[in-house]
Predict the 3D structure of the following.
Amino acid sequence: MKKLIITNLLVSLVITMQLSCMGVANASDILIKNARIVDGSERGPNELTDILVKGSMIVGLGNGLSAPQGGRVIDAAGRPVSTGLFNADTQLGIIELGSVAGTVDSRTSNENITASLQVSDAFNPSSVVIAYNRSLGISHSLIQPSNGAGIFAGSAAVVKLSNTGNIVVKKAAMVVSLGQAGSELAGGSRAAAMSLLREALEDARDYSKNRSSYASGSRRAYSLSRHDLDALVDVVQRRQPLLVRVERAADIERILEFAREQKITLILSGVSEGWRVANKIAEAKVPVIFDPINNLPSSYETLGSRLDNARLLHDAGVKLMFTGMGWQNTHNAYLVRQSAGNAVANGLPYNVAIQAITSNPAQIFGIPGYGQIKVGADATLVLWSGDPLEVMSNPDLVLIDGQEYSLESRATRLRDRYYKRAIK
Amino acid sequence: MPSEKPSDSDESSSVSPFASTYLVPQAPATVIRGATLLTGTGQQLDNADILFSDGKITALGSAVKAPAEAVEINGAGLWVTPGIIDVHSHMGVYSNPSVRAHSDGNEAVAPATAKVWAEHSVWPQDPNFEKALAGGVTTAQILPGSANLFGGRGVTLKNVPSVTMMGMKFPDAPHSLKMACGENPKRVYGDKGGPSTRMGNMAGYRSAWIAAKAYDKSWTEYEEKVAKGDKSAEAPSRDLEMETLRGVLKGDIKIHNHCYRADEMANMIELSKEFGYQITAFHHAVEAYKIAPLLAKNDICAVVWADWWGFKQEAYDMIRENAPLIELANGCAIIHSDDETQIQRLPQEVGKAMAAANRMGMNLTAAQVIKWVTSNSAKSIGLDDRIGSLKEGMNADVVLWSGNPLSVYSKADKVWIDGVLRFDRSMPVLNHTSDFNLGIITPTGDRP
């Protein structure tokens, strides 16, 4: 509770500062008229709505809203408006160029730092990758660490692709790899990875109850460094979900059982064979993160990979979050909407696909003000040239917390330089 | 059209080993009526018919007369394109599951391996082939990887089921030679005796072409003697590495050159002029837009992704309008996959690039841009007289789409290769599946 109050104070402080920096408060007020709202809720197909934005918030929704004094009026003329999109597995701001080691902060090979790696500590909001993806409709992401020396990769964070206040949830989930990747990290065998996980959580529990005797050197040796154990205390005390990378049906069942025994909160990531155990995932109320475009047996643990995995999981009642597209999920994080569109082409209801890239992660990671278009929500909005899941659509306007962001990027600057030469 | 015809006087190509054994199976004549046709030649025909029989397209237009026995398909609301062609695929050479045992795409033991042929690595049971077919891909050029300066010969395959590679091989299609610029060769060989720099790469190419010139000269002299009836002429000894390079110098083998940066592509063009060969295409070509007029002037295709970038330094300057700016310079733009997931939806990739271009100020249409995965692709693999466009006399490689193929929501409903229905979304049990997939989920359940 105390923590909440402090956060709220900080938030209001930031808002006040922003307003005073910008001078005239209502200069940024915007009325978007005749928008087709796309936020995953059921609405009439031809229903058009006006959206009134004041400061950082949506303050009005309805028909025939009057323009704010001194503000802008944009006629959407039936174009869709969504919230900014969310990609649930990227490395935005922690990788600039994949092969340039100095720009890669998503992993470490340091053996003493596994669970204690917090990607938020390395986040760079000035990355061109961020400006690029923001200009193409992404406003939020779960940025995830990669595995280095152990099965724990570290804490994923929810970030906002804005100029200020980027780190929304610092320790959103503890990432651990099981399955084939876990086996390799554990020195061979999925069972060894499970054993390491079990030992780590036992050690974290023991450590959390015996910190002073550990500090005085009178406690048994633990499997992980002090910082790593510290990081896992939040998991065993259920303050942070364990995000488990797992693909095979049997491995999914096993981790569901393990989480039940250990009383920890789970998120599953990968889940190529999730459809085979969809009822069990649904029953455990465990949400999943995956790229619905995957349908190939890239390994023996993804033999069951299929394009209608999303539909089958949804039909069973599993809550979905998406990433994509393919391995370009960081530099082209915005293409998560292409992955979502392909899920729809393969039977997933449209609104469910939208929820998977907006309101579901908002709800699961507890992001205040984000995820749906309603009065009182943050004005984090994208006006699209057409259906946001259609590959031929593009953003016409991007707002995060009411602030308009440029549709220019390093890529469009390069483009314009050579286009001008070509048409001269 | 260069094709590898046996020649009596040239021992180096007097046999045609590993020749295609593909034969066009019998199939009924088929007519699709009232569909939207993207011809691949720049046209969109609305409410049009297309008839094919005996493996060839025989008519298209309105109210096409079909033989009584022809299969009639109502194409109302559906779209038709030529079979999609991917000129950069590693299906079969980097098969799934991607276990080490399936890693057959880079002969990464020496920087120059023009002697190896990708077709000798192809595993016809790669489960990727059928997924590409479901995405409308009827032809694919399978290339070696890009670890080496000279990676080896590429092969063009028809996307048909076969137990042998020869059963998939496109009859009388020219080979290609994969070359690679930039970061990959210098990274792979930097600690293995080089090259370790771009200048080292260039020295490697030049040394090889100098040797190839000498080899070509000795064989040409020999062939001339034989042609004059000189019975005492002695054939030089064969060298597989040099045979491939000589094939390039003679114009029989097409250069497909992995190259990202504009300045490097310009250097490679100079290199080709120094040794007198033609570069057919630069692949990946992230910076092709910077030299679009130069590529057009030299008749070199730019084979690109719609939007991939950022995985290495030379892939930093990507713009989504790369292919469109090649088009604007009247060049040859092609979208490739290089990826077993992307290959399943190449028209969507085209759609993204088109939309980005039109936002920039161009006015491209689906009729124009479908060339990027059909007729332009066919040209770059030397097969534009047979595939890549819907014209009378062309091979009946035809895809029927559920809607505009550039849309995220459209899927290939039916795919014909040489007039034979090879994929039908409405009849999943009739579609071929790889041996690999049988009984692998459960004893009675195949891979989905």
